[in-house]
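User: two proteins, same treatment. go.

Assistant:
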Amino acid sequence: MTPAHPTGPRTRTASRGRVLPWLAVPLLGVLLAGCGIRPTQVPTDFGPAPSRVPCALSGPDITTQSSHGVPVQVFLLCSEQLVTVDRSVRIADGTAESARRVLVAQALLDELAEAPSTPEEQAGYTTDVRGGMTVGGPRDGDPEDTLRLSTPPQNLTRTSLAQIVCTFSDSAAARDDGSVVLGGPAPSGLRSYECTPEMRAAPGDTAPTSTTVRGS
């Protein structure tokens, strides 16, 4: 029987207990990961954080929209708020003031009902105003600045009514004080509406501020 080498067992024991230097870093990474700690020796690039909806259009698109006709602004929805967007409408020169108010109101109503353009859609804009609605002027006994919608205002959603009121109030369709007298088909009653900061900030939650028009 061949005798055991006197140093054999010590050599094997030493090799088991020694960790080679080139294994140290990966082993440390595994241990840290197991403890819920992320190793930081090698930086990792996950790319930029997702961008929020900007609610802003580029200059070239605004210029294109306003290059023909009379420049106007309409209120669209973005991030649950009312935000102005530049548009343009065509009104014949020499139109009388009373007729001009109605023509401007109808043109603005049509713009609100239009689907947002591609840049507007990409910026997060939407509209709650539906197509097919018309607007007419005063009937007998109405104030001269009355605008009567084919759909009664009380039948509109809060957001669509807010869009209409704020868009009209910022245009030639409004009264001198910025309010808007709206009603449904005659002989329904009339109310004077105002575009308030609260309504612009939360059109879906805030009922439009309005008062009854006398004699309506």
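Protein 2:
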Amino acid sequence: MSHSITITNQDLIQQLKLSGKLPEMAEGIIARKIITETATEAGIKNTTAELQQAADQFRLANELHNAKDTWNWLEKQGLSLDDFEAIVQFNLLSGKLAEHLFADKIESYFVEHQLDYTGAVIYEVVLADQAMAEELYESIQEEEISFQEVAHRYIEDVELRRKGGYRGTVYRKDLRPNLSAAIFASDSSRLLKPLQGDRGFHLIFVEEILKPKLTEELALQIRAELFNGWVKEKIQEIKYELSN
């Protein structure tokens, strides 16, 4: 028989404690205070027009196409309209503070870390057995079988199999050192010898190496990375206690 259960704020706090996520939540609270106070000190404010635009963008990003969708989402999240406005206000303020702190540092950071943003378009099949990976590598080299055929036979994930193992663009900074070194060893397309990784032995075809360009999207990514690093440093400077 189905029945309803009421979850109180005390229940939520207790669950956070038992799940070990209270320290993470506390750091989130501290981060919010740091950002808000720093923005205030810098004289950063949100205008009504900016808030309206940010709210529209938030609804669009979360597929809240009308008032009913928005109210249903708020109810599901346990939020009020005031909470929604607070989310939009804080997100907008955070973005403006990040721009204020790091807008003039993005280009120099990019120049210093260009290698981290070099991309590679790859296809990948991960196999549990090293001997099998090496055998398939030799078979592809001798044109007894294509990489696409290997992908269709040995990839379990349905969507990845349909894409022939296509992983899209990966970046040096996001890869294990041995994978990164092999993938970015040259600018030409090639099949790599099997490489050991966390999930097994990686059979990788490198389609293209993409030279880094400071696009608007990458500039926003770098700004976010610098801002998040700044917030973490500020949190570490603060001592706090979790009281019962």
